[in-house]
Amino acid sequence: MADGNFEGLVIAGGVLAVYGYDQRKPFALAAGLLLLASKPQSGTLLIAVIGLYGLIQIWQPAQRRFWMTTAITVTVIVIPFLLWKGGDWLSAMFSIEERGSIMDISVTAALNRTGLLPSPFIIILWGAFIAANAFIAWRTRFTLNREKVGMLIAASLLISPHAAGNSLLTVLAIGVIPLFQVRPRIGFFFIIMMDCLILWNKDMLFYYQASFQSLTLLLIWVALAYRTLKSSQVAIASQPSIVLAPEH
């Protein structure tokens, strides 16, 4: 908090987004989206995916009121604040001094630090990773749970222009803990990966912490992506209209 990293806002945004989407509570979903936008490094992909789902479902009469209320609520709040502080909000992402630095855990920064791959190839990998997330989001468009939200937040951090290691706390709270509850061994492995840094000395932390956290984030993404695909298939097979049910 002293460093200006309020991960609690993003964590609350992710939880509210899941609750609002699942329970069809437009104000909860709107609040979740707004909180996620407080840290675009973490929330960009999730906001985009929820927006895509809204565009798909708003044409269904039973879903129109829910999505219209959500969209109007977000718009009424976002527009005046963008006019007021929109430039600062964007510069926080693209003009930050630490971008590409030794503490940047984004995938482009991690690959650039290795010096093994040319920039065009890194850009191709970056685009392919976005495409993989888009495919999973589309394939699982009838569900939204904490593991999927954790996957999208992890992906956002990896593709962002800049991300710092303290953002792993959000992925831990949103995605890893639910994974630990259903797959204790895998979840515990990721918890150990996050916590083992306390045993590193200062030189190891300075030179290798960010790259190690990038690897941790990528492995978490793989596990959550697999869980997201698997749980979505189960949900569709057992209750195909769970998300598209009429409002009560």
How would you characterize the overall build of this protein?
- This protein is an all-alpha fold and 248 residues long.
- Helix content is 75%, strand content 0%.
- The protein contains ten helices and no strands.
- The radius of gyration is 18 Å and the shape is globular.
- 35% of the residues are buried.
- Residues 240-248 have low confidence and may be disordered.
Write the layout of secondary structure elements.
Layout: H1 7-23, H2 26-36, H3 40-57, H4 61-94, H5 107-114, H6 119-139, H7 146-159, H8 168-182, H9 184-195, H10 202-238
Helix pairs in contact: 1-2, 1-8, 2-4, 3-4, 3-7, 5-6, 7-8, 7-10, 8-9, 8-10, 9-10
SS element count, helices: 10
Q: Please summarize the sheet with the most strands.
A: none
Distance between the termini: 40 Å
Average pLDDT for all residues: 87
Portion of residues within helices: over 70%
Query: What is the total tally of β strands?
Result: 0
The topology string of helices and strands comes to HHHHHHHHHH
**What portion of residues belong to β-strands?**
under 5%
What structural class results from the helix and strand content? mainly alpha
Alpha carbon gyration radius? 18 Å
Which regions have little confidence, pLDDT < 50, spanning 5+ residues?
A: 240-248
What coarse outline follows from CA principal-axis ratios?
globular
